[in-house]
Amino acid sequence: MIRAAAGGFVLLAALLLSPPPRVTADPLRGERVFQRCYACHSVVAGEENLPGPSLRCVLGRQAGALPGFAYSPAMIEAGRRGLVWTRVTLDAFVVDPQGLVPGSAMWIAALAAVEERRDLLDYLEQTGSCPVAPGPAPKP
User: Is residue 12 assigned to a domain?
Assistant: First the structure.
């Protein structure tokens, strides 16, 4: 009984002394996380000759619809079916690209850490306020 109480006390002390989980995202940390993506993607205007599409102004963009980029047929079809890049859909994509868009050319390992994804999304969101250009209308 004493051993169980002591174990409970140690657990309670550890919980009370540990820092609370971070609730807000940090775009500066997100920029560091983005360095893992930079071999294929950019957020710099005009920097578009990379293996992956530009992620500048990605939020609000229809999937597979950035003019001038040769997307996989799977990504084009996902956009036609209505996939738009929001914080929720991008988060799901970086967790499991093939799960969200089977057949996508995205092959890199998923970002599993929730905080890293939150920071990355804040960074992408702050890369510029861009007008949302309408993409092709989804096919019924």
Answer: no
